């Protein structure tokens, strides 16, 4: 008689007669040292390994997506900051000439941020109205 490993847990399941027959066919093909429980354990192990890979790939995808979004946010923030600095450099000589005051980029940025924080709702509504109007195509006049 063949010695088999002892396992700590027991699992009782019911299967269809057809599935039982197929398991026995596989057992017969593998030889006398293999039992139906061995085949079932192997099938369960393979299934769980596959599920772990699927779960792992989902986690990997989600982590990769989060990292990609964070990188995009950082890039957008950097691009916005560079654009703001560029616009400030363009406008700074005009501001200095008209007000006779020197103002730093940081002061301008801080004041702009404070203004936007106080006025974000009306500014957003005005931007939405302007965007809607920009996409309205006037009717063509008939000759």
- Average pLDDT, rounded to a whole number, is 83
Terminus-to-terminus distance: 103 Å
Order of helices and strands: HHH
* Global Rg: 35 Å
Seen as an oligomer or otherwise, the chain set is single chain
Number of helices: 3
Tell me the major beta sheet: none
Report low-confidence residues grouped into runs of 5 or more: none
| Fraction of residues in helix | over 70%
Q: Strand tally, please?
A: 0
Q: What would the principal axes of the Cα set say about the shape?
A: elongated
Strand content: under 5%
Structural class assignment: mainly alpha
How is this structure best described in words?
By secondary structure, this protein is mainly α. It has a domain at 7-82. 76% of the residues lie in helices and 0% in strands. The protein has three helices and no strands. It has helices at 17-30, 36-99, 105-134. The chain is elongated. The termini are far apart. The model has no long low-confidence stretch (mean pLDDT 83).
Describe the structure concisely:
By secondary structure, the chain is mainly α.
């Amino acid at each position: 008689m063949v010695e088999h490993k002892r396992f700590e847990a027991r699992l009782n399941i019911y299967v269809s007669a057809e599935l039982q027959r197929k398991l026995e066919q596989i057992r017969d093909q593998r030889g006398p040292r293999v039992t139906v429980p061995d085949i079932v354990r192997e099938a369960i192990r393979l299934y769980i390994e596959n599920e772990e890979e699927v779960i792992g790939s989902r986690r990997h995808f989600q982590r990769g997506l989060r990292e990609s979004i964070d990188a995009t946010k950082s890039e957008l923030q950097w691009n916005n900051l560079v654009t703001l600095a560029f616009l400030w450099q363009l406008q700074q000589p005009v501001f200095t000439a008209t007000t006779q005051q020197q103002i730093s980029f940081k002061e301008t940025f801080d004041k702009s941020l404070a203004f936007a924080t106080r006025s974000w709702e009306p500014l957003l509504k005005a931007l939405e109205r302007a965007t809607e109007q920009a996409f309205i195509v006037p009717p063509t006049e008939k000759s």
